[in-house]
Specification:
This protein is an alpha+beta fold and 111 residues long. It has helices spanning 3-15, 19-30, 72-85, and strands spanning 35-39, 42-46, 52-53, 56-57, 65-70, 97-102. It has a four-stranded mixed beta sheet. α1 runs antiparallel to α2, α1 runs antiparallel to α3 (72-85) and α2 runs parallel beside α3. It is globular. The model has no long low-confidence stretch (mean pLDDT 83).
Length: 111
């Protein structure tokens, strides 16, 4: 997917955001070594590659968790920043689980 296509998706999200499209965009733009999923009030990334040390799973302690509270507009700005940076590497060093708590999430259509 080209950067132009990614910017177009962000433009569409700004005009008519849905939970599904926001999750999909974060998955495509961040390319984590794990999963992206919907949570009660937003989206969560788990970087499973970061959670492995020497092939073993390590526990996720509080210092490995980041909770970010934002609006839909701030989330779209974050997506643009991720496109500009070429992914999320370096955005939250040492974090395994990142939860984006998005104001108004439950008011957005799912699809």
């Amino acid at each position: 997917m080209t950067n132009s296509e990614k910017y177009e998706i962000v433009g569409n999200l700004i005009e008519s955001p849905t939970q599904y499209d926001m999750v999909r965009a974060l998955l495509v733009y961040s390319a984590p070594g794990g999963s992206v999923s919907r949570i009660k009030d937003g989206i969560q990334i788990e970087d499973l590659a970061q959670a492995r040390i020497d092939g073993r799973d390590m526990g996720i302690s509080p210092e490995h968790v980041e909770n970010i509270y934002m609006t839909v507009a701030e989330f779209c700005k974050l997506l643009i920043d991720l496109v500009d940076a070429g992914g999320m590497k370096g955005f939250w060093p040492g974090k395994i689980k990142i939860s984006f708590h998005i104001r108004g999430w439950t008011d957005l259509p799912v699809e």
